[in-house]
Write the structure tokens for this entry.
Amino acid sequence: MRFALAPKAVADGFRLEALETIDSTNAYALAQARAGDPGKLWVVSKNQQSGRGRRGRTWHSPPGNLAATLLVVADFELKLASTLGFVAGLALADALDAVAPQAAISVGPDGGSNFAAAGSGAFSSKAAAGNRFELKWPNDVLASGAKLAGILLESTMLDKNHFAVAIGIGINVAAYPDDLPYPATSLHDLGSKCDAETLFEALSEAWAAYARLWNKGQGLAAIRNCWLERAAGIGGEVAVRVDNRVIRGIFETIDEECHFIIREPDGNVIRIAAGDVHFGAVASASAV
């Protein structure tokens, strides 16, 4: 099976470049932007060898997984670029719901949904109410409390008035690395037979829908509301590492600009623009 865009994505002017092997889909997309590509370009591969994660980390991607990057040449304010990660998370969660219905959440001994993979801590009651795939601020997709996918936004200035954003999405379809410091899973481990090509086509369709809703930032309030419906950890104990500081408290919400809002034990409310989030008491201790 070959990679293909969904009909709605084609109708909205998106293009596709599928590569057998690639170092980094993000790096390739940004290079295309600097060479004059107008954007709305998806770059995809099932064999990414030098993927990148947040804060300079490596994103391991065993063959058979999906590495997809959407190149956006921006005609909106730079400060809105980071909110595209929330659009990407929603699009991916919808795509997963569409093509991996058999990737069910495990059921605990009490008959309830089990979202607490080892070391992952407590998750929200909304999640337990039925979200199969959850969104972890700012850029992960979880299944049964384990990381299934990560999203990385990178940008480059094209001239003094224009910039490009590479929205990289890496999904553990066939396998996940076994040397990670946190719980992880793959679609195949969850019982799904979905392949990377099927998932990408669904992702391209879902992105087109959410991009119209986002509408260059004018629909950010609606995106925020949709994201909160899928959010992991709301109302639970969290620890957030910000540079060399660890902030502990209760995850209350995300604000109108999609910053993380945490209430410390003394009642102080902190607004966080970037950081690493850990759920639950056990995970909080490991964040130090």
Summary: Confidence is low (pLDDT under 50) at residues 104-130. The chain has two domains: 7-215, 237-286. Residues 237-286 form a domain with the SH3 type barrels. fold (CATH 2.30.30.100).
